[in-house]
Write a structure and sequence with these properties.
The structure is a single chain. By secondary structure, the chain is α/β, with parallel strands linked by helices. It has a single domain, classed as Metal-dependent hydrolases (TIM Barrel), CATH 3.20.20.140. It contains eleven helices and nine strands. Helix 8 packs across helix 10. The two termini are about 35 Å apart.
Length: about 325
């Protein structure tokens, strides 16, 4: 079964790539950067070029959707890149096309905070998409870079959907009706994403789930079923937000970047200061078959499961990453 994970930022190693193969993973959206500037982003591409060279029997880069099918045929895992913030382009709109040509297929407009493009989900005031943001959205549409609003605020997300001529996605989050985390999304947003022909990738990150690390597979699959009723089966997928093997310093970089001298607790919960305990049914990439079986037990048919596990992601990449003529 085609299995595409819509977001991971693990401590990449051959062991993890082998676990991907063991779990039947076809392709992964790998976070390239969080708060890195343009020059630092180029170095992250360089890091991945070395990985592709060293592990060429296991992984290969994805520059367009068709590369995922080529990777499958070659028995390798396709890796496609995204940025969890707009920092790689700094204040230069020309960098959008440059980054897309290098292989950046997806970019979030914000990461929790206000950015040059839009407001993040932790801001007290939601200013919506900025003047620069409007220009950036048009340029992302032109060059075939998918707009991701996973860490953005409500108004900014709705603005982006209205402004974009292409589908907008939320690569890794869950509905607020399941768990009211600030990072999760309202029914209004989810309906708008579906109407834009976009996609929601369900996260298994415990802080985004009801009952946290104790969330059951049954509960997760109930959430998937309820969201399918709300958005339609063609607009949901998986975006685990798996951060396997990462040290505390990486979590600090995600949350604090260079902007804060103190730990940013996001939602004000100091209990969330460290990495959460993993779910019993999803610890690493070898556990994707458990999700497939859970969806079967919930009553999804095979065609629906294929859409959730990979085909909907493949369709988004086909639609969203072709340059406009």
């Amino acid at each position: 079964m085609l299995t595409i994970d819509g977001l991971q930022y693990s401590n990449w190693s051959r062991e993890i790539f082998e676990q991907m193969r063991a779990g039947g993973v076809s392709a992964v959206h790998a976070t390239l950067v969080y708060h890195e500037n343009t020059r630092e982003t180029l170095s992250r591409f360089g890091d991945w070029n070395r990985r592709f060279e060293q592990h060429s029997d296991l992984i290969m880069p994805v520059y367009e959707a068709e590369d995922i099918q080529l990777a499958q045929e070659a028995g390798r895992i396709g890796i496609f890149f995204g940025a969890q913030n707009c920092s790689p382009i700094e204040d230069d709109i020309d960098m959008i096309e440059v980054m897309r040509r290098l292989g950046l297929m997806i970019m979030q407009l914000t990461y929790n905070n206000q950015s040059l493009l839009a407001a993040g989900c932790y801001e007290a005031e939601d200013s919506g998409v900025s003047r620069f943001g409007r220009q950036a959205i048009a340029e992302m549409n032109r060059v075939g870079m998918i707009i991701d609003m996973s860490h953005s605020s409500e108004r900014s997300t709705l603005d982006a959907i209205e402004l974009s001529s292409r589908p907008v996605i939320i690569s890794h989050a869950n509905p607020t009706f399941f768990h009211p985390a600030k990072r999760n999304k309202s029914n209004t947003v989810l309906k708008a994403i579906a109407q834009s022909e976009g996609l929601l990738g369900f996260s298994v990150y415990p802080f985004h789930l009801k009952d946290g690390p104790d969330c059951t597979l049954e509960s997760f699959c109930n959430m998937v079923a309820d969201t399918a009723d709300l958005m339609g089966i063609d607009h949901i997928g998986i975006g685990t937000d798996l951060c396997q093997g990462q040290p505390q310093s990486v979590l600090d970089w995600m949350r604090n970047g260079r902007w804060s001298k103190e730990m940013d607790f996001g939602e004000g919960n100091k209990a969330n200061a460290g990495w959460p305990r993993p779910l019993s049914w999803f610890k690493d990439n070898r556990d994707f078959p458990a999700i497939i079986e859970g969806l079967r037990q919930k009553g999804f048919n095979e065609a629906e499961i294929e859409k959730i596990m990979g085909l909907n992601w493949l369709n988004q990449l086909k639609i969203g990453t072709k340059p406009l003529q």
